[in-house]
Structures are given as structure tokens and as C-alpha cells.
Amino acid sequence: MKNSSIPREPAVAGQFYPASAEKLQHDIATYFSEAVPRKYTNVRAVISPHAGYVFSGKVAASAFNQLDEDADYERIFILASSHHYHFNGASVYCIGDFIMPYGIEKVDTDFGEQLVASHPEIFTNNPSPHAREHAIEVQLPFLHYKLKNDYKIVPIVIGTSEPETCLEMASALKPYLNEKNLFVISTDFSHYPDYQNAKIVDAATAKAILSNDPDVLLNVLAENQNKGIPNLLTGLCGWTSVLTLLYMTQNNPSLEYHEVDYRNSGDAVYGNHREVVGYWAIVLTQK
Fold it and tell me: At 248, which CATH number?
């Protein structure tokens, strides 16, 4: 018997983005007006940042601006690496919709339950990792603003730090990487180097993603960490989410990654150049 619905309440409204629906709509519209215009078609996935909008909103808008606003998606899979929990596999939110300041983001709970039931060794339906996680939530206003047709989301928080588990998740999700669905990969890039080092590290990481080779990405991330760059905590905070996507796309010559936009927090009005966080908008297209 299906559990009673338990909607997921906003965790970071009023912090990462405005809690007022009117102010949020205004800000999102402003970010899209300043975003990189649409340059690509047949987009299958977007890699988008998940910081506070004052820092990363323009880059996120550039990522979502590559979507066809008339696209009619069956499902939108949103992958985010957990900021609060470490656990094996990933958690799929299956027990209700996401509540946002502007209304409801519908969750495909039936599909989520099927995914967990089909792959219990990888996926759990434990909602706890979703409760305080911001990385999925902050993507939703951009989708809501950009897409005209109704859609349902499949929110997935990844708790593992094992590449082998990411490969298993990729195998389970790969059948859904097609024209019917969209994948949103939530990640920021470098954390806390200075402005110039961030640009160098983030360029290398983006180039690795564009190679469409998971091993290249893992090697570049390791190389960056071993360079002794002051204050570099990570080169890619959502590396397990990006890695999962790369495991889905590797060895497929019809799929191609493209750089869309880059900034770091030092570019923001409130940013400093001493310790920054990097943000890329990258899209995956099908030829």
C-alpha cells in the first residue's frame, strides 16, 4: 500500500533565494535576461550550480536557457551529491511533492518507488537526506520559469563517494537518458582558492567533463588536489553526480558536452577574490 504523501518543505527559501514568490519571479527573470542566449538544441542534460543566487544565478540561468521552453518532458531527473549525509548509493524522494514559494513541484513518486524496488542495492527511499539538502531545491525555480509544459521531477541525492557505485547508478539510469527526459546535474566547481587559481582549476575540470571520459575527470580532480593550491577544498563538490552522468554518456559518439558560461563568486557584487567558489554551466546535447 502506498504511503501517505509527505510533501518536502523548502529548506533554503529566504537564504539561497527569495522566500517571496514575487521577488523570486523577478530575480529569476533578471537572471534569464542576462544569461547566455540559447545556442544548442537536443539538450539531454544540464550541469548547473547550486549556490546562493546572488553568486551563481546568472550561470544557472545560462544553463537552463539552453532548453527548449516548449519541450514536453516525461521526467526530469535531478542529481545532487549530498552535503549533509554520507551513505551508500543514493536516496530517491518518493513520498510527496516539493513545496516551493510559487507552488508545487510535482514528484514522480510512482517512478521513484519503482526505481528503488528495481535496484535496492543502489537506491533507497529514505527521505532524510533530502530534508536539508539545497542542491536540488535551488534548481527548481529555473525549471519552473523556463518550461511551459507540465513535468514531474525525480529528485536523487547521492550519498556515496565510491566511483564503482556511481557506475552502478549510471547503469540503472542510462535507459532514461533520451529525448523523453532531462537530466539536471547540480554542482559547484572549485571551493575556496583565490580568484585566479579558481579560473585555472575550473577550466581544467570543465575540459575533463567535455572529454566525456570518467577516468579523465577522476584524474584531473586528483591532479588538482595534489598541486598544493592554497585553500582548495575541492575542485568539484558534486563530483559523484557529474561522474554518474559521464558513466552514462561515455563511449557514445552521438553525445557531446559544451561549455556555456563560467563565473566564480569573485565576480559577484558581494564577492571577494581571496576565497571563491567556481560555477560552470555545461550542457549535454545529442547529435
Answer: 3.40.830.10
